[in-house]
Amino acid sequence: MKLLTLNCHSWQEADQWKKLDILAAVIHEQSYDVVALQEVSQLITAEMVKGKLKANNFGFLLVQKLKELGSMYDYEWDISHIGYECFEEGVALLTKHPVLQRESFFVSCSQDTSYWKTRKVVGMTVNYKGISTAFYACHLGWWQDEEEPFRSQMDRLVARINQERPHFLMGDFNNPAGIAGEGYDYVQDFGYFDTYQLAKHKDSGVTVLGEIAGWENHSDKKRIDFIFSSKKVEILTSRVILNGINKPVVSDHFAIEVNVADW
């Protein structure tokens, strides 16, 4: 099973259309089973095309480009909040497998989508080789945030998930690995396994090189994007891609690609 997560910083990038094409080409080439995306945006003023999706929804356009390349993906997106006063920003999942269940729910204290700290998680349960497996696209808050602390968001997330079903939490957790007693440890306190730590072969894992939006005055390298598993599984490889070394950069975050041995 091949998984990918990326905070795609959509419609905030220079050469955005070129980067969208690069992302589509990589997903097509690698044929990921599930892709989780964060900061998936659409203009508030754009034309509605399907359900909540508008014509310039970044993920919707990505799926169309994948279809043109010959890769068919199911797509689920929901809005978390309004960004930069003109975008509806959310999280999304793509999968090549039959979808058994779809869900989206707030994990923030706030449920006001006009508030930029409001957070929602999108989930899909798929039939992966006869096993019902769930995947959740996550873009959570910061540990030290007094209004929307990571701890309470993680508590709500775990409370909504069927813990009997194998599942993966994928995304931008805004909590660096290696800081003891904060968000990274808190996720693992619930019994989740960091697939990076389980991987037989891995690289640095760094997904953010320096200062970006939300991490002002933090110039250090950070590993804040993760794929967590609800059970200890065999991870063949974990690598950072779309980082200028393994494929061109397409966002202010790099992507994480994980190859999970079938169970």
CATH fold assignment: Deoxyribonuclease I, Chain A
Average pLDDT taken over every residue: 96
Main sheet characteristics: 7 strands, mixed
Shape by Cα distribution: globular
How much of the polypeptide forms β-strand, as a percent range?
A: 35-45%
Strand order of the largest sheet: 5-6-2-1-15-14-12
Work out the helix count: 5
Domain count, please report it.
Answer: 1
Q: Distance N terminus to C terminus?
A: 10 Å
- Indicate the percent of residues in helices: 10-25%
Rg for CA atoms = 17 Å
Which series of helices and strands comes N to C? Answer: EHEEEHEEEEEHEHEHEEEE
- Contiguous low-pLDDT stretches (5 residues minimum) are none
CATH architecture: 4-Layer Sandwich
> What's the CATH first level?
Alpha Beta
Oligomer classification = single chain
Structural class, by secondary structure, is: alpha+beta
Strands, total number: 15
Tell me the CATH superfamily.
Answer: Endonuclease/exonuclease/phosphatase
